[in-house]
Amino acid sequence: MSDLATVPDSTAAAALLDKAGRGVDRHLSDLLAHGAQDASACYLADPGSAHAARTDPVLYTAHRDVLPPHRALGAEWFADLCVYRSGQLPGGELNRSIGHWNTPAQLEVFEVLSGRILMITAWYGASGAPALNWHVCEPGDLVAVPFGAWHQTSVLDGPACVFNIYSDVPGAPQQHTSRHAAQHAEIKYRSSAPVEITAVRAAPGFALAGSRRGRDHWGRGVQVVEPSWLREAVGPQGLVALHTSASAERLSLLVDAARAHLPQSWPSAGGERA
Fold first, then answer.
1. Nearest to 99 by CA among 41, 56, 159
2. What is the pLDDT of residue 8?
3. What are the residue ranges in the chain where pLDDT is below 70?
4. Per-residue pLDDT tens for 33-80?
5. How many CB atoms lie under 10 A from the CB of residue 58?
6. Which CATH number is 3-261's, of 2.40.128.110, 2.60.120.10, 2.40.50.140, 2.40.160.20?
7. Could you tell me the pTM of the whole model?
8. Each residue's pLDDT tens digit, 209-223
9. Cis (ω within 30 of 0) for the bond into 204?
10. 3-state SS track over the chain
11. Taking the domains of the chain in order of start, what are their residue ranges?
12. Cα 224 to chain center, whole Å?
């Protein structure tokens, strides 16, 4: 068993980065490129200011497969780490990820190892009604993304190290595996229109903002906190230890709890989901 299975969360980020190597830097230009290639691939609060920027800052560094993948419960499990920079985009939007829809079978769980983030999550219920949640995450907090949902990470206090694991739940309908989608931008970012909601800097911390269409469609959103079932399923040592130990018993608890508690995103009545 790796020593990462027993380190506390306060040192897990440093331990992972020590093992991770350089990673891939994502710049403001990468965010803009997704919108330029397909205007529906990425929503920006102020694209004019972003395109007019004279600098191209690093938004985050992605460490894919920061820990070795492993097979359990008949599926492959993968682990990534993203290190988000503090700051904001030109125009006042918080530094952020690109945002994308997960596949319907994808189980993805995040843990904040350091810093503070805002996770925005959206999906369509079985009736076609839109649902929008937002979760302010402190170090040690866990977030599980609903199956097939859209999510975006914004940085409240950085640098923020965010660890995640993902796999595909057997039996769920899917056109692509989550691994295939993660490796192909045209699937990960362009399979469906983005949620036109983001976060901007505002006193005392942030405010949700979006296009008229986004605000009218998704509403103000609901603040959520970490559910007790997720903490119980992951275990007291956290997500890094769960992946490192590769305990089939613990992973089975996570899968069963996710199936029981996580919403499943459905195609919207208006056809906005592909």
1. 41
2. 46
3. 1-10, 34-41, 171-174, 180-191, 268-274
4. 865 545 556 899 998 898 898 899 999 999 999 999 999 998 999 999
5. 15
6. 2.60.120.10
7. 0.89
8. 999 999 999 999 999
9. yes
10. CCHHHCCCHHHHHHHHHHHHCCCEEEEHHHHHHHHHHCCCCCCCCCHHHHHCCCCCCEEEEEEEEEEEEEEECCEEEEEEEEEECCCECCCCEECECCCEECCCCEEEEEEEEEEEEEEEEEEECCCCCEEEEEEEECCCCEEEECECCEEEEEEEEEEEEEEEEEEECCCCCCCCCHHHHHHCHHHHCCCCCCCCEEEEEECCEEEEEECHHHHHHHCCCEECCCCHHHHHHHCCCCHHHHHHHCCHHHHHHHHHHHHHHCCECCCCCCCCCC
11. 3-261
12. 15
- Terminal CA-CA length for the chain: 42
Radius of gyration of the chain measured on its C-alpha atoms: 18
* Two tokens, residue 152: 């975006």
The total of other beta-carbon atoms located within 10 Å of residue 21's CB is 8
Q: Enter the tokens of residue 60.
A: 């985050």
Q: What's at 118, amino acid-wise?
A: L
Measured CA to CA in angstroms, residue 57 lies from 82, 89, 98, 128, 222 at distances of 16, 9, 14, 38, 31
Q: Cβ(91)–Cβ(49) under 8 Å?
A: yes
